[in-house]
Amino acid sequence: MGDADPQVRGALAACLTDDAYRTSYLEAVSTLCAGARLFMPVLADEDGDMGAVKLTNEHGSTALLAFTGIDSLMAWDSRARPVPGSLSDLAATVTEVGADALLIDVAGPAPFVIGADVLTPIEKGARLVKLDDGWGWMRSAGSS
């Protein structure tokens, strides 16, 4: 029920080993855009309110966390509750919580970061697709 999609995990793992990182990165984003289910962790704060989790790096940039499966979420923090969603759902949440990026599988097996430049069109209903001559954004007729 909360198992990771092997195709998604494979696409993210390819970014760690592929010499042509740009291509493997775009492949991974395209795979995530194709309807992959991710899990956003929520944790209780000191007042007991549940909320999304952001991490801040040493430069002050923040990232909303997401995971490809319950196993990777539990490896990060077994107290977290998983909230399933698509990449477009999480792109909207990145904006909502004021984060700079989406960080997938921070504890492994293959950490992956998607920045605002890629998340913005996804939030607006576009998905990255491979074309015969490169890559492009595709929108359905009803999206903005």
UniProtKB/TrEMBL annotation:
It comes from the Bacteria. Residues 10-118 form the SseB protein N-terminal domain. This is SseB family protein.
